[in-house]
Amino acid sequence: MFNIWHPVLIWSLIRVVRFQDELLWAAAWLFQATDDRRYLDYLANNADAMGGTGWSTAMFSWDIKYAGVQVLAAKILLQGRAGAHAAVLQRYRQKADFFVCASLGKQGYGNVKRTPGGLLYHMQWNNLQYVTSGSFLLAAYSDSLAAARQAAVWCPAGPASPAQIMAFAKSQVDYILGSNPRATSYMVGYGFIYPLEAHHRGASIVSFQSNPSFVACKAGYAIWYPRKGSNPNLLDGAIVGGPDENDNFVDDRNNYQQTEAPTYNNAPFMGVLARLAAGGRLDRSIPDGLDNQTSVAPSLSAAGDQGVHASPIVIEQNATASWTEKGRTYRRYAVTVTNRSLNKTVHELFLGIDKLYGPVTGLDKKRYGHVLQGTAPSVPAGGSVTFEYAHAAPPANVWVTGYKLV
């Protein structure tokens, strides 16, 4: 039997940064499946070092599992199974609440963008992968909150009840299936209008049953891929990449960013569809007899809890210079990021920046946010780092997206 507890194996794995969210994800699921508290110990004891309680993200996908870990850890806490690890799981739950608030547009900063038609929009290439996985996670967390008789997640811009969370997940499903400005279903074969040119090798080559003639190894790409017209094989049920930030969509198999159809688009979508089909009316997300407007047990992300589980990272901004050019007043801002931890170093710090209209120095832009410059940047206990930006506007919004504390 494979033993994940072998110390040499554990050390070799945690050195691979990209795997650390996967290890926490695996530990959470293994505890859920086996009730073996060694897995819960692993989830709690590595919360800081592996980023489980450091990442605040509204993105959940095959490549970044932190939000899923946080929602599952919150479920364990809500079920009353945390034991001695309740304090750590409370911090996981704060991040799960961030996922909800940012998805529903109630966070204030770090909110997920929306298209004019109301679709969550993360990025141009295959945006629907994040919508299907995010909707599934929202539906799952809604059920966990309702089962624990929690009235709401308390967001900076107002509460989000389990019913509201579920309703929002359903709105994303409705959009994907055709309730959108284009009246287009992004599931192949469903509805009146749907993609006919999915970026998919098997769908774009003629079926052997229709034409049994030999197709050479490279002929699929050289002959069938560039041909004009609908795919000869209908890829029933596949969900494509979906529209852009303005709800526009070009149905062309060469347009792989919008028409590719990976399995990870469909997998979470099946989960949320099953939940909606089984749940009937949305208000069943609230247990019978629970008043929607009454707070039974405030979310652990409520204002009163922030001081108990505050982030070790503090951000301060100061205007250091100003000048006028072409009738506009520009200011240079220095941003200081301080690690308040007494004995742990901040590694892999990611920062979110919004309402920035000028150049920034001292940071590099990466996929999941801005990072400190350098080959292996870190902030030691009690230490600080500074970066600058300049623009003709009030201070930009700067916040911590993620970090690991070791």
Q: What do you see in this structure?
A:
It holds the Pfam family Glyco_hydro_9. Residues 1-19 form the signal peptide. It is an enzyme of class 3 (hydrolase). One of its GO terms (cellular component) is extracellular region. It is a single chain. By secondary structure, the protein is an alpha+beta fold. It has eleven helices and 13 strands. The protein has a domain at 313-405: Immunoglobulin-like, CATH 2.60.40. The strands form four sheets. Strands 7, 9, 10, 11 and 13 form a five-stranded antiparallel sheet that branches. A four-stranded antiparallel sheet has the order 5-6-12-8, with no helix packed on it. It has a two-stranded antiparallel sheet with strand order 1-2. The two termini are 31 Å apart. Mean pLDDT is 86; it is low at 1-17 and 281-308.
